[in-house]
């Protein structure tokens, strides 16, 4: 893996060298190695670079690699580095160097006599060791992630140890393009966006609304079975709530602010729900006998995300969370976490995403965390033990914890091998302390509860972006927005279609949701049968019922599924559809 990182890092330098030869006035930002490859952020001035320019740049890279130039490391002082950057008119490098301490030890890497870059490395010893690669795409990236700074052109490349691995990756990317949820969302009429509504604010069509509500209701049903009770909280709140919880100091710049013209008070559109649920818990006295207290809510939150980071349903400004919070005693943590892990496993098995890894997200040494370090240590030991006790495939990572506590983040693998962080379980000793939450224990004394945050789907919008791509739009029968489409051969079968719809209207699909009525439509238009079937197939309807004169005569229905066709007796239609997965 270390050699692969060296290879990818070196290729980012080769990319910069190629750009420098083709566009002598280009100015360079940073160019690191990343998962699967590398990139470089470049200011091309007035020249617009697009994906169509990549073959030319890639050819130049291959010409440079063919020279087998050595990569030579040499030390430099800050003063020497500044002189080099000023001489090269590399403004972004100047900015980076100027921020370094005066005694910082810097290093240059020389690519023969062709190209020099300021870099810590590591790199291969010469360009013959770089291996298979391909320039992949062009994107925009604000300098240092600040939307008030210049927009640079980011050129991405991918690189692997073997050509077979590279080809496999590129094939996966082609498949990912076909499954892109933004493309399928439009084709399947699930959601849309409007400039008049605003970026990052999706609008769901009837079909998309059906899908998202089925997802939310399934998640709620699993938690309801485990003792969670529904609550409801308003969409705006006084900013005092988030100042008290600690969210304002951490995420104040993500809040959408609302000013009351009547009272003059400042409100915020809620970005999360935990402080609200804490207020419900605090609304009356509690005793140890009623613990744990479990709340759940599927509600829309609002975050002022940067425009450049928005993308389809993956990153939005209005996100609906299937949120839940447990308030429990210390001795109940183990059982509650086990309960939540069970819910997560069941939901993702139903979704066909059984391959789950758990990331145990711990605090780092940064100052961004609240609460007593001893409580953190205890909480981190507890979630690790919970992962072991529940047989989770887990790994540990510092610096990924929430500001109030460690968490278990579940990473689900989709149909083409990509991993997505979705569900989460988080321990929180901080908010109960900040809000003064308490209950009367068995000794008659006041005791502080532990708060456990949990989301099964996470953001429903983000989950849908993953689920649409995971299924390629071929949703499981139980959650397809339209499960059945009746297609008529001609206009002489109307009475028989009425008999079929009487049967469909009585069908209840009871797994995984109870009382899930069948969703169907009828296409009795004057179009040809082939056109009707093609239209239904393009909409990825799981079951197409073809009804013609022969069906009327034999009291049968012709059924087309994704992978087969068959004819069944009308009397067996209800049982057949109930068994479809």
What does this structure look like?
- The protein is an alpha+beta fold and 581 residues long.
- Helix content is 35%, strand content 27%.
- The chain is built from 18 helices and 30 strands.
- A hairpin with a 5-residue loop joins strand 19 (407-413) and strand 20 (419-428).
- The longest helix is centred in the first third of the chain and has 21 residues, at 2-22.
- The radius of gyration is 29 Å and the shape is globular.
How much helical structure, as a percent, in the residues?
A: 25-40%
Output the strand order for the largest sheet: 11-15-16-23-20-19-17-18
Q: Determine the structural class based on helices, strands and strand pairing.
A: alpha+beta
How many separate helices? 18
Poorly predicted parts: none
Mean pLDDT: 92
Shape: globular
Q: Radius of gyration over alpha carbons?
A: 29 Å
The span between the termini is: 41 Å
- Biggest beta-sheet profile: 8 strands, mixed
Question: How large is the share of residues in beta strands?
Answer: 25-35%
- How many strand segments? 30
Short description:
The chain has 581 residues and is α+β, with helices and mostly antiparallel strands. It is built from 18 helices and 30 strands. Strand 5 and strand 6 (115-118) form a beta hairpin.
């Amino acid at each position: 893996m270390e050699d692969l990182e060296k290879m990818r890092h070196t290729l980012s330098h080769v990319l910069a060298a190629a750009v420098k030869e083709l566009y002598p006035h280009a100015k360079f930002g940073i160019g690191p190695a990343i998962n699967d490859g590398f990139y470089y952020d470049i200011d091309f001035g007035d020249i617009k670079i697009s994906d169509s320019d990549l073959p030319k740049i890639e050819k130049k890279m291959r010409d440079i690699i063919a020279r087998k130039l050595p990569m030579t490391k040499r030390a430099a002082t800050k003063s020497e580095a500044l002189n080099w950057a000023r001489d090269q008119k590399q403004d972004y490098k100047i900015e980076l160097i100027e921020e370094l301490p005066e005694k910082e030890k810097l290093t240059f890497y020389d690519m023969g006599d062709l190209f020099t870059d300021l870099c810590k490395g590591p790199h291969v010893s010469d360009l013959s060791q770089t291996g298979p690669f391909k320039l992949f795409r062009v994107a925009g990236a604000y300098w240092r992630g600040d939307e008030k700074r210049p927009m640079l052109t980011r050129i991405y490349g991918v690189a692997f140890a073997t050509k077979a691995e590279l080809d496999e990756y590129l094939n996966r990317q082609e498949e990912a393009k076909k499954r892109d949820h933004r493309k399928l969302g439009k084709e399947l009429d699930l959601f849309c966006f409007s400039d008049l509504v605003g970026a990052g604010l999706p609008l769901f069509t009837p079909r998309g609304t059906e899908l998202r509500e089925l997802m939310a209701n399934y998640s709620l049903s699993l938690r309801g079975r485990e003792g969670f009770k529904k609550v409801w909280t308003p969409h705006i709140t006084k900013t005092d709530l988030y100042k008290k919880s600690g969210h304002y100091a951490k995420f104040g710049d993500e809040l959408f602010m609302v000013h009351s013209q009547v009272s003059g008070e400042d409100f915020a559109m809620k970005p999360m729900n935990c402080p609200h649920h804490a207020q419900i818990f605090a609304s009356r006295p509690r005793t140890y006998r009623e613990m744990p207290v479990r709340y759940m809510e599927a509600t829309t939150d609002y975050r002022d995300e940067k425009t450049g980071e928005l993308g389809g349903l993956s990153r939005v400004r209005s996100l609906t969370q299937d949120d839940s919070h447990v308030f429990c005693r210390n001795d109940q943590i183990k059982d509650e976490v086990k309960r939540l892990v069970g819910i997560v496993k069941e939901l993702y098995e139903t979704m066909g995403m059984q391959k789950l890894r758990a990331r145990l997200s711990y605090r780092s040494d940064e100052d961004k965390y609240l609460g007593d370090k001893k409580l953190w240590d205890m909480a981190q030991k507890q979630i690790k033990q919970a992962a072991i006790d529940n047989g989770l495939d887990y790994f540990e990572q510092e610096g990924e914890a929430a500001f109030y506590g460690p968490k278990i983040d579940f990473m689900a693998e989709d149909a083409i091998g990509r991993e997505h962080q979705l569900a989460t379980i988080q321990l929180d000793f901080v908010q109960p302390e900040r809000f003064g939450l308490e209950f009367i224990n068995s000794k008659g004394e006041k005791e502080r509860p532990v708060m456990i945050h949990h989301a099964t789907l996470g953001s429903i919008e983000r989950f849908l972006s993953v689920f649409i791509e995971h299924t390629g739009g071929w949703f499981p029968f139980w959650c397809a927005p339209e499960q059945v489409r009746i297609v008529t051969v001609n206009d002489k079968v109307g009475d028989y279609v009425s008999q079929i719809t009487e049967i469909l209207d009585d069908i209840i699909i009871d797994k995984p949701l109870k009382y899930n009525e069948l969703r169907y439509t009828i296409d009795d238009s004057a179009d040809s049968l082939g056109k009707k079937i093609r239209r239904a197939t393009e909409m990825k309807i799981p079951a197409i019922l073809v009804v013609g004169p022969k069906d009327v005569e034999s009291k049968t229905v012709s059924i087309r599924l994704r992978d087969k066709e068959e004819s069944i007796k009308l009397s067996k239609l209800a049982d057949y559809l109930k068994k479809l997965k």
